[in-house]
Write a structure and sequence with these properties.
The protein is α/β, with parallel strands linked by helices. The protein contains three helices and five strands, in the order βαβαβββα. Helix 1 runs parallel beside helix 2. It starts with 11 loop residues before the first strand and ends with a helix.
Length: 133
């Protein structure tokens, strides 16, 4: 993300709870979800309530439905809407208003190939677009 005056207008908390799994993927994933995931999500969602950022981006997510369920347990008023992708510009995402904070969940990761902006999504533009609506 660019570090200029307009960039600082967005207070963005980027969260990546994705874990890369080794050979015994199914067992490791189940153990993670059973023991680590609930506490980690409680901490992340608690920090949203405490610090009240304008926008929270959860990227690289594997199990969107489990994430949405976790959010809805702590914030029952959260209503998720699915946003459509625009190839090379905006990733497909799920959006909810969580206690005054815009929460975005996507399976995409903010990676550029060969450090060229034209090979990835415009995450800065995506944040501005979401905030404007």
């Amino acid at each position: 993300m660019r570090q200029d005056a307009t960039c600082r207008l967005l207070s963005v908390l980027q969260v990546n709870t994705q874990v890369r799994w080794g050979g015994a993927e199914g067992i490791a994933r189940n153990l993670f979800q059973e023991y680590v995931y609930p506490d980690r999500m409680h901490t992340i969602l608690g920090n949203i309530s405490l610090y009240k950022p304008e926008l929270v981006l959860m990227y690289g997510m594997d199990n969107i439905n489990l994430l949405k369920k976790s959010v809805e347990e702590l914030f029952p008023a959260a209503n998720f809407k699915m946003g459509r992708a625009i190839k090379g510009q905006i990733p497909q995402h799920h959006q909810a208003d969580v206690d005054g904070t815009i929460l975005l969940i996507t399976t995409q990761v903010p990676a550029l190939k060969h450090n060229r902006v034209e090979t990835g999504f415009d995450w800065y533009g995506f944040g501005k677009l979401v905030k404007a609506h």
